[in-house]
Specification:
Blueprint (H helix, E strand, L loop, with lengths): L14 E5 L2 E8 L15 E8 H10 L3 E9 L2 H12 L7 E4 L6 E6 L4 E6 L9 H6 L5 E5 L1 H6 L3 H7 L3 E5 L10 H9 L2 E2 L3 H8 L7 H11 L4 E5 L5 E5 L5 E3 L12 H15 L3 H15 L12 H5 L3
Parallel strand pairs: 1-4, 1-8, 2-6, 4-5, 8-9, 9-10, 10-11
Antiparallel strand pairs: 2-3, 6-7, 11-12, 12-13
The structure holds adenosine-5'-triphosphate and magnesium ion.
């Protein structure tokens, strides 16, 4: 596997499988407002970039970790954009399966500085690769599950990973219905690290949206027999707790945010990088927040994901 030229070796390079739908993101940036039905609005900026699970995969590769992506894309132009973007970052694509043309998952992201709306075609995305097969054919130490579809498709994923001696993290992403389903909630319980944002956490817990993030993380940790629970809260930073431990908070650094798409996925990479180093939870949260904040400073999910050199040279 080739590594990104700007990458230096991680203090503890990990062999990681990122599994979950990968999208070709079409980012329409700097919109003054969302269009109504029958209307057209014009974007000031535009970017095409690998999205979904690709964002955390690229962010981890930029930190020097050995990352394989397990996903399906169409054998088509959008699939080529995604695969070339990932290969250029040194992500191993041996477990990317090609499907019929026209089936690459695609998302139109309509973004303004502090919020975004998505329209998505899932295509082959839910047709997840079997993680047991990937683990049997690799020496992965960690499986990061990006998005709820894999939890629905593979209810024994956490057990398989743990049987192979691999740890598991899970960022469920948003889907109003999926977050209420037993298979998704089961992976939330079984993963070693769970990383929802505050709306996702509320939905997972069946709590109202106005519950504080500190309360959400307390409730999440209570539901989980072990591991670390995190709740991400945009510009308000992130909260975290080890099951049975105190609730901790890290502030989000002040940045000139341009596009929040992918901030949570890049947060995940920073958080995991710190966790693998064995630093205290408050430092994992702080590193995640620094990474998430940096991700908002360019259009496209992983475009501004920091390299290790940038992390080490931070002010
Ligand atoms: N406007 C912002 N300013 C500074 N930091 C931010 C901002 N938005 C996000 N972040 C950082 O990124 C982290 C993750 O962002 P957020 O809570 O929006 O995740 P998310 O909703 O899962 O994002 P996505 O699903 O689009 O990747 C936050 O905890 C925070 O540290
Ligand atoms: Mg997210």
């Amino acid at each position: 596997m080739t590594l990104n030229a700007a990458t230096t070796t991680a203090a503890t390079p990990r062999r990681v499988v990122v599994i979950g739908p990968v999208y070709c993101d079409l980012v329409f940036g700097d919109l003054a407002r969302l269009p109504d039905w029958g209307e057209e609005v014009f974007a000031e900026r535009f970017a095409v970039a690998p999205g979904g699970s690709a964002i955390t995969a690229i962010a981890l590769a930029r930190l020097g970790h050995r990352v394989s992506l397990a996903a399906t894309v169409g054998h088509d132009a959008l699939g080529d954009v995604v695969r070339h973007g990932l290969a250029a970052e040194g992500v191993d694509l041996s477990w990317v399966a090609l499907r019929a043309p026209g089936t690459t998952p695609v998302t139109a992201a309509l973004t303004a500085a502090h919020d975004r709306a998505f329209a998505t075609y899932l295509g082959a995305g839910a047709d997840a690769i079997d993680v047991a097969a990937v683990l049997a054919g690799s020496d992965a130490e960690h499986v990061h599950v990006a998005g709820f579809p894999t939890a629905l498709a593979q209810p024994t994923l956490a057990a398989s990973a743990h049987a192979h001696g691999a740890t598991v993290s899970f960022d469920p992403g948003w889907d109003e219905r999926a977050l209420t389903l037993p298979a998704v909630r089961a992976l939330v319980r079984e993963a070693d690290v769970v990383l929802p944002n505050r709306l996702e956490a509320a939905r997972l817990l069946g709590a109202p949206d106005d519950v504080t993030s500190a309360d959400l993380v307390t409730r999440l940790a209570t539901r989980r027999p072990h591991g670390i629970s995190v709740v991400k809260a945009g510009g308000d930073g992130a909260w975290g707790a080890v099951t049975g431990g105190a609730v901790l908070h890290a502030q989000a650094p002040n940045v000139m945010a341009l596009d929040p798409t992918g901030a949570g996925d890049v947060f995940d990479a920073g958080f995991l990088d710190a966790w693998w180093e064995g630093v205290p939870l408050e430092d994992c949260l702080a590193r995640g927040c620094w990474f998430g904040a940096r991700a908002t400073t360019a259009y496209g999910g992983a475009s501004a994901a920091p390299t290790r050199l940038e992390w080490e040279a931070r002010a």
